[in-house]
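[[Sequence with tokens]]
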Amino acid sequence: MSEAPDRVTRRHGADADEDAAAPRTAARGRRRAPKGNRDVDDALAGLTVPPARRLFGRRGAVVLLVCLVALIAGIGGYLVLGGGDEAPAVRLPSTLRVYPSEGELLALSDRSRDKRPLSQGEVFGADLARRSFGGVTLTATAPRLDTDCASAVWGQRVVEALRNAKCTEAVRAGYAGDQHVGVVAVFNLNDSHQATRVAEAMKVRGGFVRPPVDKAPFDRLGTAYSRADASVEGHYLVIVWVARTDGGKPADLRNDDLINAKVALGTLDRFVYRRLVEIGGDQRATPNRTGTGTGAGTRPTTGTRPTTGPGTQPSTPTTQPAG
């Protein structure tokens, strides 16, 4: 025991002097203690008071490292989820269909041929504020454009995919009716390949679109049954997400109101075909869409696409997806 103070001093220098002197102070106190406490004093005298720096040593370093890792992870999660005062709720559609880009949009497959930035009015203009199909009517609210695409989504996988795709704009709007609610989001990406990568990140549930507002009825999206389409259209990715306001699931697929809601909002991609005309691409705009709930498919017909004017309302689909 007599060697302990010297060993502490050699390792830690002057900082350990006070800790090393503690046993000697206790010993002097023992001689002054009443006789009846001698056994207690003898027991205490055999204890060595470990210096603070020795206690910190390896155990303290491990604790500090764990705290730093937790702090970094928390900051990273905050940044990955796009910032904000609170982390967004993890809300996903019940089913998501991914549609690849059509051959007619080949001229738009790379943004180098379509450099003009998107605008909110181009995607959600006044003539597109009210959409109807099959008895479902939806009215636009809270349109917005963000140049920080990460703020329009949640989920690390999707954020990274958007970053790799060099996303420059995310344009979103909410659409609501008496019995239905929906969100349309458009992402301006580097090329069709990267747009597909973003859609795939969403398909494997690595994140999804955040509604432009988190108030009723849009706060119900993802909390009950809902459906979404992710359509790659040239270098754009168009997301359509719909649900019933009561969260119900259609019982009759022959009269599926959620399909009608998706078709109504699906016509908001007409800006893509206007841009196709601008750059002298294929003006034949009559895609035929069918698909599956888990993978890629072809797009259901939603009507005549515009060439130079605002276009017309969609005709009755000749082929409807199963859900």
Summary: The chain is about 35% helix and 20% strand. The chain has a mean pLDDT of 74. The longest helix spans residues 52-80.
